[in-house]
Amino acid sequence: MNFVALIKIRKTMKKQITLYVTFSILLFAAACKKATEPTPPTRTEMLTSSPWKWVAGTVTPAYDIFGDGKPINGDYFTKAPKCWQDDIYTFTSANKFTHDEGASKCDPSDPQIYSQGTWAFETSESVIRIKTSSNSSDDSIWQINELTSTSLKVIETYVENGKTYTFGYNFSR
Length: 173
What we know:
This protein has 173 residues and is of the alpha+beta class. It is 23% helix and 39% strand. It comes from Emticicia aquatilis.
């Protein structure tokens, strides 16, 4: 084989190798493309995706929550009647709110739905206002401490006879 023929073969091979390497790089780059991350749920989606079960309740300072003359400071959930401990709270995307008695009712003649009304986020979605009557002073204002797809932790302040009480409510799914 003469020298000119070798140079032609070499040039042809160089072109083929360059094309092969370029194609391989493009194929590898396409295969390594990052998968798109799913969009995280919004606060509304987290709140409304399914009902919440009440799992903890606290109060400070001491408050006679059961009306038995025995004020409780701190955890009152574990001291609450079993018929309170299975209550279910539902927030819908249509801004409806329901407090359901759960599987057990304190009085069998009580309605299954303890209260219902509407809800709305306020203050950059850091507060939930629950309205169950036409009187706005009856609204529950829940400051959100935690909201995830499986956990809701809120606090509510209540003033009685000039004294302010802080109630904590924890819910889970």
